[in-house]
Amino acid sequence: MPQDTFIVTLLPRQLPSLQGWRAVPAHLAYRLGPGPHLFRAESTAPKGGLMVVDDKDFDGLGQTGPLCQEILRECQARGFTGAVLDFEGRLPPLERIAAALDEPFARRGWALYVPERYAAAAPHARVTIPSALSGGSLQRRLEEALERFGESRAVLALERRAEDFRLPSPTGSGQPLTDQALEELKRRLAPSIFFSGELCARYFTYMSREDGGHFVLFDDGDTLRRKVEVARRLGIRTFLIPWSEAAPCAAQLGIQRRPEQQRQGRR
Questions:
Q1: pTM of the model
Q2: Which DSSP category does 249 fall into?
Q3: Are 157 and 131 in contact (CB under 8 A)?
Q4: Is the Cβ–Cβ distance between 129 and 144 less than 8 Å?
Q5: Gap between the Cα atoms of 135 and 153, Å rounded
Q6: Each residue's pLDDT tens digit, 222-262
Q7: Cα separation of 114 and 53, whole Å?
Q8: Do 116 and 236 share a structural domain?
């Protein structure tokens, strides 16, 4: 039976909490900065697992070739088996970076994970498909991804999202809610909460005197589990999730404990 692979993004200081679980650490320790150059976000230098590179401080200026060599050297030095390009921007140099890393990573047997918009630039890379939807069907969304990328490349990127949408919502985007804001809203309104099988998320509605109707869509451990199950049925067996969101429901998602931890738990 095929085994799941859970990749969890976490800060180096969070590593001790992951040691008892069968999961691949993806270190939130790197960023693109001016130059461009690769910068460590924390003084701690992790080893093993994957590196995560974000683009929050990237201005798009400069030559990307030397930067890509920095990434390759850091992976080699730290014993990383791949990298997650956590690129939220749409600057053309980011596409060139993904393209330039694709073949060298594949040649070394390293895994490269890229957002869907960069899939064409990096044909050997694995493609992260967001689990959060505001409309449509998660199953159909994943079926379309499989048609485009195949089982070997498709990765479900799990995210515990909560958003408040004003109705009507022509853009399909809502106001993000923190855990605290969501709980306060539920406490104040005491709404009837429903589950959407199409979105694999919970929701409720309410009326505001100021701006009319609202639709609140949110995830919890159970909805994330259901999203994993939909992906598994379709043949997707690799999942990416922040450890801060996975930790409270790790066993529920199917992340297995290491044997020594299981023995200790039975004592």
A1: 0.92
A2: G
A3: yes
A4: no
A5: 24
A6: 999 999 999 999 999 999 999 999 999 999 999 999 886 55
A7: 10
A8: yes
